[in-house]
Amino acid sequence: MIYFLILGFSGIIFSSLLIYFRKHFFLALEATLALANAVLSNEDETVKQKKLVVALKAMLISLAITIGLICVIVVLTCLPVYIFKLIKNVATQELDLGSIWVIVSFSIGTIIPFLIKRKKPIEDYSEASILFHKLILNNYNLSKMLFSFDRKFKKGEKIQDKNTFLIVSGLARAGTTSLTDQLFKAGAFSSLDYSNMPLLLAPNLWKKMYNPKKTDLKERKHGDKMLFGLNTIEALEEYFFKVFLNDSFISDAYLEKHEITDNVYTNYIKYQSLIRQDNESTYLSKNNNIILRYESLRKLNKSFKIIFLFRKPVEHAYSLLNQHQRFSEFQNEDEFMQTYLNWLGHHEFGQNQKVFKFNNEELLIPYDKSTLDYWLSVWLNYYNYLTNMEDKDYMLIEYEDYLNKPKEVLQYIEGEMNMTFNFSNIIPFTNTREIDTTNCNPKLLETTDAIYQKLKFRKLKY
């Protein structure tokens, strides 16, 4: 009886060590897939070889650590039985190592550690889910391969490429999420949603394996009473550009203006056709980074429609400051959140906040990020560029107009898109918040107000 209890204890040791060292095993799996990702690269051979060497070195180190940990686990698992054998002075061949009771005792022991409730790493994602996200979203060449598979997979459905689509954009906190959600509910649009994570470039293959019909809604972390669930559309298409541009427009401090090639544009249109449900639907996306490539995209396509939203500079800056502080605290508590936002190209606020850079000149903002002046400068940088763009073929909507007259705003967009909308979900809203600007730079307030007046003059009138 004691022997079988010892076997059960060995089982507990075995599972406990597997759980304790699990992150090392996860890293080994990540390193292995990273090597496969490097092999799939179509980059210059010299660059590819350097990346292969780095990936191979990382994989071999992880493999060596894994083998060492497995040896430790085996030794420590066998140690109780070995000690029992020494105490009882029993030969190894005399031990029962193959009966059903041996298997049952060891199996029960291995199960016990998994029954102990452990704290989840974060609220919304299990460790397995986090690992799956890392394996897919960290490996751009693998994502490209999945994109190619998905195109072949959906080819039989004969969804035609369509040059007409709608992008909702603007500096973060301008109301882009709300407007995009209203448009999706009102018209025959197709868009990415949270259920497409993490196989963002292979939505149809993923849907065959994972297709939640309906999920509970909860308030997003912005604290703005916007609800979301797995079926809620979100700004997820930026991952496409990150993959096909290999993050070339992202530096340590900036998101930089860039041009897209004909090949990237062609794949972008094909990507939209993977997301669209049928030939009658229109692709809809929220993308706050699209301004970085807007002029380039417009040269390649005169047909698509885009909306830029803006709001009063002080209110907008205050909202950005509030979210920056809020997300910085979240990221201190949850290291995965920043990784998640980086994958999606969300650098609007938080610890990895980056500023839009529209030319080759060094962009320096002489204010601390904890001040309203910093975020007024961010606002000025964005909307000064927007007002000075040569191309004016976009719809410019003020946030307050959307809040106060949502139906009129959507009716205008309905006409521009030549579509028929359902207006049953529209509810007007009034923003009455007052912002204290006592400590703000008067010159900065004056400059931002001048740009704001230009935007108001240029905006759509209802």
Automatic annotation (TrEMBL):
GO molecular function terms attached to this record: transferase activity
Top-rank taxon: Bacteria
InterPro entries (alphabetical): P-loop_NTPase (IPR027417)
Transmembrane segments: 60-83, 95-116
Keywords associated with the record: Membrane, Transferase, Transmembrane, Transmembrane helix
Protein's recorded name: Sulfotransferase domain-containing protein
Phylogenetic classification of the source organism: Bacteria, Pseudomonadati, Bacteroidota, Flavobacteriia, Flavobacteriales
